[in-house]
């Protein structure tokens, strides 16, 4: 494998997905909950091997971006250096711009899931994530988002799910003492945010859905 040129290009495309061998980094506190985001099955995400946006077939826990951008949280933008380079995740160790064969070989295999990670961080978080997923699984809701612009019933069901998602997160903070910084790991990105991939947004104080941009999600469901 060629030596890394420290150009920062890979890191600016987004944080890596974690694999089971990275669980030790969570247990040691090197990767705290605030640095992690869960992308759930059905969400649109960048495939770093093929270089395309595609719906995820299964969930992935990734490192968060910084400053509202895709750049990995641990990238120093001035030096192009990684702040945790000596203890970087497995996908970062396999990454090489000039030869992606090692990354391709392990890319979507053995990815760390919430079922494996959350019990190691807090005894209650796994149950909370499961209860939320029962109502807000994005693989089930994405087809509703595709139909919502022309199907009133799909739009109604989607709005109910979005309201449930928001209320569940608020209750998790208020009653279960979940830190705000851990919400994106435990529950993934808010449904309200995911609607942007479908060119949808809320109007009338959240009472209805309207078209607000381009449809990025492939109409394949």
Characterise this structure.
The protein is α+β, with helices and mostly antiparallel strands. It folds into two domains: 11-113, no CATH class; 122-211, no CATH class. 36% of the residues lie in helices and 13% in strands. It has nine helices and eight strands. The protein has helices at 23-27, 90-94, 101-106, 114-121, 125-136, 138-147, 152-175, 183-187, 191-194; strands spanning 36-39, 44-47, 52-55, 60-63, 75-76, 81-82, 200-203, 208-211. The strands form four sheets. A two-stranded antiparallel sheet has the order 1-4. A two-stranded antiparallel ribbon has the order 2-3. A hairpin with a 4-residue loop joins β2 and β3 (52-55). The longest helix is centred in the last third of the chain and has 24 residues, at 152-175. It starts with 22 loop residues before the first helix and ends in a 10-residue tail after the last strand. The model has no long low-confidence stretch (mean pLDDT 87).
Main attributes?
221 residues, alpha+beta, two-stranded antiparallel ribbon, 9 helices, globular
Helix content: 25-40%
**Percent in strands:** 5-15%
The beta-strand count equals 8
The largest sheet, given as strand count, sense and whether it forms a barrel, is: 2 strands, antiparallel
Return Rg in Å. Answer: 18 Å
H/I helix tally? 9
What is the total domain count? 2
Secondary-structure class: alpha+beta
Strands of the largest sheet, in order across it? 1-4
- Overall average residue pLDDT: 87
How far the N terminus sits from the C terminus, by CA atoms, comes to: 39 Å
Order of helices and strands: HEEEEEEHHHHHHHHEE
Q: Which residues sit in consecutive blocks of at least 5 with pLDDT less than 50?
A: none
Shape: globular
């Amino acid at each position: 494998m060629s030596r890394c040129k420290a150009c920062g290009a890979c890191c600016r495309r987004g944080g890596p997905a974690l694999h089971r061998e990275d669980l030790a980094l969570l247990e040691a506190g090197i990767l705290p909950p605030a640095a992690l985001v869960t992308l759930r099955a059905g969400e649109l995400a960048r495939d770093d091997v093929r270089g395309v946006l595609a719906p995820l077939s299964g969930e992935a826990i990734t490192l968060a971006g910084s400053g509202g951008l895709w750049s990995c949280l641990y990238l120093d933008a001035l030096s192009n250096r990684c702040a945790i380079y000596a203890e970087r995740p497995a996908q970062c160790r396999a990454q090489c711009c000039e030869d992606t064969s090692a990354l391709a070989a392990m890319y979507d295999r053995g990815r760390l899931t919430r079922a494996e990670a959350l019990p190691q961080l807090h005894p209650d978080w796994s149950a909370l994530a499961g209860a939320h997923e029962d109502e807000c699984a994005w693989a089930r809701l994405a087809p509703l988002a595709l139909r919502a612009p022309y199907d009133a019933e799909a739009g109604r069901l989607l709005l109910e799910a979005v309201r449930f998602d928001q209320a569940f997160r608020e209750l998790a903070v208020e009653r279960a003492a979940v830190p705000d910084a851990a919400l994106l790991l435990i529950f993934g990105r808010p449904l309200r945010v995911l609607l942007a991939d479908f060119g949808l947004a809320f109007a009338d104080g959240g009472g209805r859905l309207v078209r607000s941009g381009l449809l990025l999600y492939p109409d394949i469901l």
